[in-house]
Amino acid sequence: MDYHNILFEKIKSRVKNVLGTTSADHDYHHALRVFNLANTLQKTEGGDMIIIGCAALAHDYCRPWEKETGKPHFGDEALKIIDKEVLKDLDLTSIQIGQILEVIAKHDIYDWSEKDTSKSLELKIVQDADNLDAIGAIGIARLFSFVGAYNTSMWEPGEDLTFNEDFTHEKKHTSGIAHLYDKLFKLQDNMNTAAATELAQHRHLIMEQFVEEFMNEWTGKK
């Protein structure tokens, strides 16, 4: 087993200990899928796979802590936890650790209206991989896992499905279907890399087909 695989296996084990029993929307399997997607993108786009792989695996490590404390899973306190519990005692330089933590710190920040041209390639790839896992068949499954875990509705008939360009959480938009419109349908056009944009097209189509079928069944048309 080479250095990369040894490193990633150690991180996988540490992440699984924390995310292995969480809800399916942000669980250990999500981290693995993001890792695999990031690996696929890196083969086309380039970038440092050590930084990309470590950040992809650890990006949601503090989700349970966020739920418990109400503090962001990518904030300064969370980054210190990830540094101490995930990246410690590994064959990583301080520069590499800093780059990994920077990717995690910025991966969940969106720039709907104006692209951030200062993003590193590694950040672009991890963010794209995370966003790809939010759409398509897997994205739909994760969405309704979240709906069940947080006891929200699948759909509220008459709910306003028009949104501003910038994604904002609004109390009036609470259903699973609304989340498709307020965020998930926007992701296809907000990928950073060409490789991710290509993959996003099919996943976006899957969501469009799902909503059409969902509404037909909801209203009894089919």
From TrEMBL:
What is this organism's lineage? Bacteria, Candidatus Dojkabacteria
Stretches assigned to coiled coil:
none
Database matches in SUPFAM superfamilies: HD-domain/PDEase-like
Q: Which Pfam families match?
A: HD (PF01966)
Which protein are we looking at?
HD domain-containing protein
Q: Which InterPro entries match?
A: HD/PDEase_dom, HD_domain
The organism's place on the tree of life at top rank: Bacteria
Q: Which organism is it from?
A: Candidatus Dojkabacteria bacterium
User: Where does the HD/PDEase domain start and stop, copy by copy?
Assistant: 23-144
Signal peptide range: none
